[in-house]
Amino acid sequence: MSAITIYHNPACGTSRNVLAMIRNSGETPTVIEYLKTPPNRETLTALIAAMGISVRAALREKCSPYEELGLADPKWTDAQLLDFMLQHPILINRPIVVTPLATRLCRPSELVLEILPQPQRGPLAKEDGQVVVGKRT
């Protein structure tokens, strides 16, 4: 089992870029496609605590059903927001990366570089062509 885990959505460009940066460091992470295999309440709560962010900060706002459920309303408690994320995993902001150094919500994708145990092994550009490491080939 890898020392690095990514809670990944393969349909998300940021998540794909983070996965590429992890692999470019020579690591083969454990990839959890959280939409197919959502974390349970205990795991989600532990991830949020380890990231040192609020439950609301772990909530993905740019998706359905965020607006439909009225989740911007401050009336929702942390427990209720967790319930929504467990019922609708698409509401979990991503990618979340766990390494021996830290747990972090990697938005923007370059944040993963701060928590990888090993440096990047070669040049890398994000999907949009933006160079992240070294020169473009």
What is the C-level CATH assignment of the domain at 5-34 and 94-133?
A: Alpha Beta
What would you say the CATH architecture of the domain at 5-34 and 94-133 is?
3-Layer(aba) Sandwich
CATH topology of the domain at 5-34 and 94-133: Glutaredoxin
Indicate the multimeric state.
single chain
Rounded to the nearest angstrom, the radius of gyration is 15 Å
Determine the structural class based on helices, strands and strand pairing: alpha+beta
- Give the rounded overall mean pLDDT: 95
Outline: globular
CATH superfamily of the domain at 5-34 and 94-133: Glutaredoxin
Beta strand %: 5-15%
With helices defined by DSSP (H or I, 4 residues minimum), what is the helix count? 3
Approximate helicity band:
10-25%
Unreliable stretches covering 5 or more consecutive residues: none
What strand order characterises the main sheet?
2-1-3-4
Distance between the termini: 32 Å
Using DSSP, what is the number of strands? 6
**Secondary-structure element series:** EHEHHEEEE
Largest pleated sheet = 4 strands, mixed
